[in-house]
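Quick one, tokens below. Sequence please?
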């Protein structure tokens, strides 16, 4: 093992793409519809990574057993695209993440709940959960009209339909709930979204919003992803 952090270059892309594809396969069973890999996920991801490696604003780093892509600038960067072998997280994973933290005022780090060693690396550097995403698979129903309508609202809940990230294929758009007051309102919003083709509902919850957490547990949602951030 080595925690030697160095720039990631175009010559690393074959390895990066293969490493990322293997990670998607490991994640998929934890949310089979939400994280179902698209048939062309590898090609799409490679095209995206190629643009990032060529983008001087992106911070692209690697070690012997992991890589990281950070988007943004020295004020704020988001780290989502990162993969490290399990046994290397404690040293190489932490070293990669530290390189971003040391060069950035605020770092937002995406941590699927199914990756505990990723979470441990975040906590080792003092990052704390700022937000969580919860999801629930929606009933697959016959889709009615107005499928181009993206903003949805009911009494006590609002949301919008958004496309899934290109590397995933949940079978339709995703309902991103932007505001919810009650479980009844959430259920009504999700019913309408399903009728318009949405297959998954995603609701965000601030770390300090315990009432929303309780609402989501009672509504049958599952915490899928945590968003860690550096302290302000």
């Amino acid at each position: 093992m080595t925690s030697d952090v160095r720039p990631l270059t175009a010559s690393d892309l074959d390895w990066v793409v293969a490493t990322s594809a293997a990670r998607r396969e490991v994640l998929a069973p934890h949310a089979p519809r939400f994280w179902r890999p698209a048939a062309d996920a590898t090609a799409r991801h490679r095209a995206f990574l190629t643009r990032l490696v060529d983008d001087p604003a992106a911070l692209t780093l690697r070690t012997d057993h992991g890589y990281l892509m950070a988007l943004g600038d020295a004020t704020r960067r988001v780290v989502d695209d990162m993969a490290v072998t399990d046994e290397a997280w404690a040293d190489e994973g932490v070293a990669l993440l530290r390189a971003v933290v040391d060069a950035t005022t605020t770092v937002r780090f995406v941590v699927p709940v199914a990756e505990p060693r990723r979470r441990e690396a975040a906590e080792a550097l003092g990052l704390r959960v700022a937000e969580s995403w919860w999801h629930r698979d929606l009933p697959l129903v016959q889709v009615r009209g107005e499928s181009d309508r993206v903003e949805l609202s009911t009494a006590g809940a609002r949301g919008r339909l958004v496309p899934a990230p290109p590397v995933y294929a949940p079978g339709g758009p995703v309902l991103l709930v932007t505001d919810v007051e009650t479980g009844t309102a959430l259920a009504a919003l999700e019913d309408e979204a399903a009728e318009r083709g949405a297959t998954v509902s995603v609701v965000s919850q601030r770390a300090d919003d315990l009432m929303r957490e309780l609402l989501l547990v009672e509504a049958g949602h599952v915490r899928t992803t945590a968003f860690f951030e550096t302290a302000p």
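The chain has two domains: 6-126, 132-229. The helical segments are 13-27, 41-53, 89-103, 116-124, 183-195, 210-218.
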